[in-house]
Amino acid sequence: MHKPEIRIVLCPVDFSDLSRRELGLAVEVCQAFGARLVLHHNLDVAPPGLSRVWEWNELGRDGTISEAEAEQRLREVLAELPASIMAEASLSRGPTSVVLAEMAKRLPADLLVLGSHGRSSADHASLTERMIDASACPVLTVEEGAHVDHFRLRPDGGGRTVVVVPTDLSPAAERVFDYAIGLTAAAPLDLHLLHILPASVRPPAVDQARRRLETLAAERGATGTVCHVEQGEPVETMLRGCEQLNAGFMVMGEHARGLLLRLFIRDVARAVLHRACCPVWFVPATA
Question: Which of 2, 34, 61, 252 is deepest in the core (most CB within 10 A)?
């Protein structure tokens, strides 16, 4: 079993409530893997859309926040982190997605942790969607309405965490499964491998798919993996599975060039990202 090397975690913050939840995920990862945490704030970050202008204004993010104030807020965040975590912070100016992509490359980051304020729209280009498209490293995302209560990676975190891994049984999807298996070397995780077939598929094909999942898990030594073959619409089936299993998070192939582009349509990954009841850990083909 090859444990993914997570040595540097990059976590952008905008000082919103969502940022605090995002930071909690980053801290959990750093403690489980002994990673260094790099906090980052971009002074030119764009607001999250017209529907969230009220929160943005309350935060003082109407363009008047100074560099000195941002530095002070970052110092306060650093002071609240567990003493066991190596952490630092930085500020930047410029297009946020460009700055983050360059910073992740320069560190280099092994994981980018991002909170999502919502889908792209006429007044809001989702940073999270753009980073999943562009990032060379895995991206751990949490949507504003998602629960993070069951995201536990440390052995002393209070039990085992259920992880759902959707797969289309392609070579790219198998690499995503390998990544998820590797996470179990550092954390008490129970993997649930999920394959979705159309509702029209007959029982013999369902049984065959289940055998393929079981063979895949056995070949990789992941004998504790629970295999699921479900029928139905992909997004709803994945979301329902996560809710029923009380999943701590999902591990998925990134949708721009990997698993989901072939398996469904591009919008499926965005729907999962923004509607999942738990965080989603996107893994690019290059990870």
Answer: 252
